[in-house]
Amino acid sequence: MRTDLHIHTYFSDGVFSPEKIVDTAIDVGLNAIAITDHDNVLAYDVAQNYIKSNNLNDKIELIRGIEVNTLYKNNEVHILGYFMNTQNSDFIELVKSQQQARVKQTREILALLNKKEGIKIKFDDIKKLVAQGGSIGRPHIARAIASAGGTNSVMEAYAKYIHIDSPVYVPRKTVSPHDAVEIIYDAGGIPVIAHPHDLEDIAEGLIKELMSYGLCGIEAYHRKHSPAMVEYFSTMAENLGLIVTGGSDFHAPNANNGQIIMGKNFVPDWVYDKLNAEKKRIDMAAVS
Questions:
Q1: Is the pLDDT of residue 69 over 60?
Q2: 106 vs 35, 38, 101, 113, 126, CA distance in Å?
Q3: Domains (range + CATH), the chain
């Protein structure tokens, strides 16, 4: 079962529509995918309807997912969630508060860009860069800055304005990883810590902390992880009794050569089996 459990669409900071994600996944030989947009689940229904209306159920399985952006001691921590009941009231409130925080941050940064740098960008210009109802964020602000002539490139916009030391940057008031994990778990989902190598020295301690809130897994397979890192986090997961997940963290084709990198991150077949087994365990625990 070829699987990619970490994919983004244009409902957050990806460039492909949910329909194109489905077609691309089939083209590269994937059997199961999870769309994990930042702080929203809107792409799932679009993709699922596309699969159903085009009779693609025998070609691809779609897993409901999300990637929640959280903060912990000034570190951005991303929590992946799979199989949540998106009608759960606490989960609905989580997504709502995350979206409100994104809008507030964006408006405040745009005001400072205008006041301190003379870069005038309308909020509506930011909204146009994401699908309706999707999650606006720093990538969209950086693109808008470059488009407005504030910098020569998106990367320059990041380096100059989209970081904590910039005089125009405003941190997002977001939830803690503890809250995100607990809400996903209580909604019947599987919370997993994403690309833990980004957390460097705090990763293991935080993972152990989050286990008491319901953390179920570690994303050991990721395009940023070397084989040694995959081994390190897989061993950590085994020692802690957590499952292992993985994915490409696909946002767009490789900018250098135009290649699709979705599914290129090797994820063993057993990852899919363990994920489904974990979902069954959670469902049985909720009943008993």
A1: yes
A2: 24, 15, 9, 10, 8
A3: 3-94+174-287 (3.20.20.140), 102-161 (1.10.150)
